[in-house]
Prior knowledge:
The chain is an alpha/beta fold. It has a single domain, classed as 3-Layer(aba) Sandwich (Rossmann fold). About 45% of the residues lie in helices and about 15% in strands. The protein has a seven-stranded parallel sheet, with helices on both faces. The radius of gyration is 17 Å and the shape is globular. The two termini are about 30 Å apart.
Amino acid sequence: MTKEMNQHMTKSEQRVALVTGAAQGIGAAIAKELAADGMKVVVADINGDGAQTVASEIDGVAKTLDVSDPDQVSATIADIVSEFGRIDVLVNNAALVPLTAWEDISFEEWRRVMSVNLDGIYLVTHAVTKVMGEAGYGRIVNIASNTFVAGTPNCAHYVATKGASIGLVRGLAGELGKLGITINAVAPGIIASEGVLTGPHVAGFDFVVPMQAINRRGMPSDVAPAVAFLASEKAEWITGQTLVVDAGHTRN
């Protein structure tokens, strides 16, 4: 289905995409890219005001959502289905990205990162695949990280969740394929998003950029097209895969 066809669909025919953690950074860029491709995009984020700002820019719908809360996830999915009758695309982007040395990671911090970065993927994906399965069509993209490939220090809990998100892609591909659903992962390198630029991760650019094949900082807009491709009908024959988008920092 082309962008032009999608844009001229009726409300009941238009592809509907749910992007979590989409109030800023990579998530916002993905939401805008999918909207540009003609999809109706649900911008979900625990930051409801930020989600509304992004949604207003793309004629989308904003949902305040903590992906680690089972009740909120169930209610949000039900609301989307009630309003649009479908969910065709899910992008699991919501995540916490702490920078903490291993010896300083408390069990409370460990569990919080797991609850958002991993339990959140389970909760939203589990709910959405039921909707997609009934329709016989779906595209799921997990936003992983090249830290899983690089073994980046001082964020072991984050790296563990991103590795698990890739494992889930591999483990689910066979089960979901028979339902007409593909599931893949995109693993970005360090990206100049609002969260990175205003936090301790910004120092990583000095180390990483010289190691890249493309010698500049990555932007959220560098990641979004890869996600949009895997979320499109053109990627029908691709599932269970991880696409690393890091300017050649890691090369597999």
